[in-house]
Design goal:
By secondary structure, this protein is α/β, with parallel strands linked by helices. The chain is about 35% helix and about 20% strand. It is built from 11 helices and 14 strands. Strand 10 (about 265-270) and strand 11 (about 275-280) form a beta hairpin. Helix 1 packs across helix 10 (about 325-345) and helix 4 (about 95-100) packs parallel to helix 5 (about 115-130). The radius of gyration is 21 Å and the shape is globular. The two termini are about 30 Å apart. The mean pLDDT is about 95.
Length: about 375
């Protein structure tokens, strides 16, 4: 890739007190491919101004609404080129739609939208405008996950049979949404979170991980959603049986009431010849499981030439120096930026992997099917195709 100036990015949401805004900014800056130059960082005007000033944004590029930011930046010769949306779920669609239609590329903190109807429209807008949209399904951007996908694609494990993916958390094991916990209050509110809390928030991560590694899509599912905490409207626990389009069968067990757990996502996948296992708690290790010989332990690291070329392209440190959540998050921003830069310079676009609008649509289709299945007595339910 030829030398270039960093892409200018404007952020919507992510002001003071934001859970994820700071993560997005660190990820965007890590490889020097983005420069945050504008922001509409809060719906509260005073907080928006204070947050922008704290980030060192020029005073005339601190906005109090996303409409103002997009309109003003579009007129500038040095205006933003990319929009990052880090608002709660119900505030994803409108700014994404406006930004895409005005010619900006967009990156959104997952999920793509509030519901499946909005996801369909955003998918159609991306197709119509030719703009790029990335979604931060972060776990799929860990190098070990990329290596797992390469191993499956190579056929080393044979025809896939079974996948088990788990994502236990414990932070919603009590009714903290009735306190001042901002993250709990909107995630458990159906008017802001959507039709699902637990599965929509972390279950989509789990199934996206399974689809990413296997290269298969879920076609049918059977779901059991539970709300264990009294007075909670949305689910805080989900168990889902999965059928994939090429014969793989699986189960996703996700929970936000598993006391003592943080973000212990892990996946095991088994084929006719062997299996693999990856755990977020040891993110730089991939275990390859063989039936008649010792297991292989693959260590991620920029110097490990036995790794797949795509894995190596998403590593920054030598073996033994761990990379984690921020680096995986940054891989999405990096690959998104490289795709935009290649297009801007009329270059042949290499294979820069990042979750896109179709992944986002699939996430919303999964949520829709999971809720329908659970409400219908845990009946097998078809997932809408992307």
């Amino acid at each position: 890739m030829q030398l270039h100036q960093p892409l200018r990015i404007g952020m919507i949401g992510g002001g003071e007190g934001s859970f994820i805004g700071g993560i997005h900014r660190m990820a965007a800056r890590l490889d020097g491919l983005f420069e945050i130059t504008a922001g509409a960082l809060s719906s509260d005007k005073e907080k928006a101004r204070a947050s922008g000033a704290k980030l060192g944004l020029a005073s005339d590029r601190i906005y109090t609404s996303y409409e103002e930011m997009l309109s003003n930046e579009k007129k500038r010769s040095d205006g933003i080129q990319v929009v990052s949306i880090v608002t709660p779920n119900h505030l994803h669609f409108a700014p994404a739609k406006m930004a895409l239609e005005m010619g900006f590329d967009v990156i959104i903190d997952k999920p793509l939208s509030f519901d499946l109807k909005e996801a369909r429209e955003l998918r159609n807008i991306v197709t119509k405008t030719g703009r790029h949209l990335a979604l931060t399904y972060t776990y799929s951007a860990y190098p070990a996950v990329m290596e797992a996908r390469a191993i499956v694609t190579s056929g080393k494990l044979g025809r896939l049979r079974k996948v088990v993916v788990q994502y236990p958390q414990g932070w919603l094991s009590e009714n903290i949404e009735s306190t001042d916990n901002k993250q709990a209050s909107w995630r458990t509110d159906p008017t802001r979170s959507g039709a699902s809390c637990c599965f929509g928030d972390i279950g989509t991560h789990a199934v996206h991980l399974a689809e990413t590694i296997s290269g298969q899509h879920v076609t049918e599912l059977l779901a059991d959603l539970q709300s264990f905490v009294d007075s909670r409207t949305l689910d805080d626990d989900a168990t889902v049986l999965l059928r994939f389009d090429k014969g793989l069968k699986g189960v996703a067990a996700v929970s936000q009431i598993s006391n003592g757990e943080n973000n212990s996502i892990q996946i095991s996948m088994y084929g006719e010849k062997g299996g693999l296992h990856w755990s977020h708690e040891q993110p730089n290790i991939l275990k390859i499981l063989w039936p008649h010989r010792p297991h292989e332990i693959l260590h991620m690291g920029a110097g490990n030439s036995y790794l797949h070329h795509e894995t190596l392209a998403n590593l920054r440190t030598p073996a033994g120096h761990p990379e984690g959540y921020l680096e995986a998050f940054a891989n999405i921003y990096k690959n998104f930026a490289q795709t935009i830069i290649a297009q801007k310079n009329s270059l042949a676009t290499p294979l820069y992997q990042f979750p896109n609008v179709h992944d986002g649509f699939r996430g919303m289709a999964l949520v829709d099917a999971v809720v329908k299945s659970s409400k219908n007595g845990s009946a097998w339910t078809t997932v809408e195709k992307s």
